[in-house]
Amino acid sequence: MSTLSLSSAFSLLLKRDLVLAYRRRAELANPMLFFILVTAMFPLGIGNDPKLIEAVGPGVIWVAALLAALLSLDSMFRSDYDDGSLEQFMLSAHPVSILVLAKILAHWLVTGLPLFIIAPLLAVLLHIPSSAVPTLMLTLLLGTPVLSLIGSVGVALTVGLRRGGMILSLLVLPLYVPVLIFATDAVKTAIVGIPTTAQLSILSAMLVGSLVLAPMATAASLRISLS
């Protein structure tokens, strides 16, 4: 099996998932709309004190991003499982973990990337200083792929369940907590003008570790779910 054939399979699967996501534009918009609405409505509930909004702003953005990612996780393998293509996918001659990585990347491109793009506007709404916005963007760039990678393992374990949403939340949310803690702390640290090298290094390590381990764990979980 040549490298070219594997890269072609990867790119074709990525393109397929992106095309299917584009055809379901209503579902595609749900995570971004949820992210915007939760972030925009939060200041209405706590009042108009700029200092208070600035203090909770990083946490609000990251909790909204986490929940928006969780909202879209179930669709990662659901349609493939329902139409039987997931079984063919598992019988491929190519490494399943690499093909799984293509689906995870497609999920991030249609859910995580829009959150990354819209975040600077919501940072203004939450009175986050402009000096901390680059750190916010960097935490989203490092952290949202981790959400997709970790979430793929939970989705693979619950894809065979008709109502696996609650179980998926119980499996995935505890694993999301470290990302939430370090990403939020990085933005808060940047607001007060302290270097954020430590937090960003930990997020980078989480991304590398998830990138190496999550596709293999997801492939194994899919075999368990389909057995």
UniProtKB/TrEMBL annotation:
Alphabetic keyword roster: Cell inner membrane, Cell membrane, Cytochrome c-type biogenesis, Membrane, Transmembrane, Transmembrane helix, Transport
Compartments it resides in: Cell inner membrane
A matching Pfam family: CcmB
GO-annotated cellular components: plasma membrane
Membrane-topology annotation of the record: Multi-pass membrane protein
Transmembrane portions of the chain: 31-47, 59-77, 113-130, 136-159, 171-194, 200-222
Highest taxon of source: Bacteria
Keyword NADP annotated: no
GO molecular function: heme transmembrane transporter activity
One Gene Ontology biological process: cytochrome c biosynthetic process
Family: Belongs to the CcmB/CycW/HelB family.
The protein's role, per its UniProt record: Required for the export of heme to the periplasm for the biogenesis of c-type cytochromes.
Descriptive protein name: Heme exporter protein B
Organism: Candidatus Thiodiazotropha endolucinida
Upper lineage: Bacteria, Pseudomonadati, Pseudomonadota, Gammaproteobacteria, Chromatiales
